[in-house]
Amino acid sequence: MKRILIVGGGTAGTMMANKLRKALDAGEWKITVLDKEKTHYYQPGFLFIPFGIYKPADVIKPKSTFIPAGVEMLYEEAEKILPEDNAVQLKNGQQLNYDYLIVATGTSLRPEETPGVKGNLYYKDIFDFYSIEGATALGKKLRSWEGGKLVVVIPELPYKCPVAPLEFIFLAEAYFTEQGIRDKVDLTYVTLMSGAFTKPIASKMLGELLEEKNINVVTDFYTEKVDNEKKQLVSFDERTVDFDILTIVPVNMGSKIIENSGMGDDMGFVPTNKHTLQSEKYENVFVLGDAANLPTSKAGSVAHFAAEILFDNLMHSIEGRPLTASFDGHANCYIETGYGKGALIDFNYDTEPLPGTFPLPGIGPFGLLKNTKINHYGKIMFRWMYWHILLKGKELPVEPLMTMAGKKRNPIDLNK
Question: Which of 334, 326, 346, 342 is CA-nearest to residue 404?
């Protein structure tokens, strides 16, 4: 019997297990998912935990809930991939052979990569919201906090869900307003980018929203270290930003498995053909989700859209046909902005986020680069869709490839 081995049972790996089990003959193909963790986290929900909008229980379910019948789920830790041998070596010494490998190992949080983060103030005055532990600890801190300087910092690219730090500071502004202490809180958004976002049109819209909410923005700030004694962020050019609470986006790198295997780039992400999603080096290895070094967002929507393309190309490969499906880098992200409103961006490798309507031209109901209540509801509804549709490999009512329908080709004048 032939085997497809999926390393990683998160969003990307679970989607592929469901898609492949429906398509392949169970008598001919064995599908195995390998992951050491038994718990599946709805990671976009971590953002809401510090503000009491979600509880930890709202973002946690057993991984086994989403693995279809007929798929082998192994809760073991992989040591490294041996692509020349078509095998994966486990920590327990066992070796799993494969005919096709899908790498879905995601990213790993490396807070220790920024000097001073894991010092005396870690989880006391320095937090992240990219882990269940960090989000929960930060929520406990905010409930008793009476004000001061709260700083959000992005020290390195790339990182999961590029809009999440913006969402956090928007929600923080609304939270402190609702708590009646907004006048006692100084909010600062610190980024190594030259604006609020990587693309100019979206950056202009989001930057204006930060200004409207009286949130300070420090750009082109390349974080060297965190000074625990002075409670300061320090840049390589010796600029400083004071804080009472520091919320940091931990450095995101590829999985240790990729590092151990010598398959990654400098950041531990797998060199991947950005269109076919096939490994640049091994024909029977495909890469999905955050583990790939694709020049697009590391976000759940990207994994979902890319899964459609990877599935088609893997089936083509199995049947000995050319890999004709081509991924365009499609990403679609709701942005919580506080007070029951949200924004939406839709873009790909070649087209930056543009204003307009989504998914239907002129109708929507969602507005691109608009701050509306319906966009907020889209974000909230996504959790249900994630658990019941996306993870189970079902189709969402959005095409995997981006369309220009509903987008304005001659957007706002950036000089105004």
Answer: 346
For residues 186 and 199, what is the distance between their CA atoms, to the nearest angstrom?
A: 26
Domain termination site, one of 204, 230, 250: 250
Nearest CA to 246 out of 160, 134, 361 is that of 134
Preceding peptide of 165 cis, ω within 30°: no
Residue 44 phi/psi, 5-degree rounding, is -60, -20
Supply the pTM of this predicted model. 0.95
**Whether residue 11 is found in the same domain as residue 62:** yes
The total of other beta-carbon atoms located within 10 Å of residue 206's CB is 26
Work out the pLDDT band at 416, boundaries 50, 70, 90: very low
Q: What is the per-residue pLDDT for 310?
A: 98
Q: Which stretch of DSSP H or E encloses residue 195?
A: none
| 8 A C-beta contact, residue 45 and residue 383 | yes
**In the beta sheet, which residues pair with residue 270?**
292
What is the spatial distance between Cα 326 and Cα 312, in angstroms, rounded to a whole number? 9
Query: What number is the average pLDDT over the span 330-354?
Result: 97
Q: How confident is the model at residue 395 (pLDDT cuts 50, 70, 90)?
A: confident
Q: Is residue 408 part of a domain?
A: no
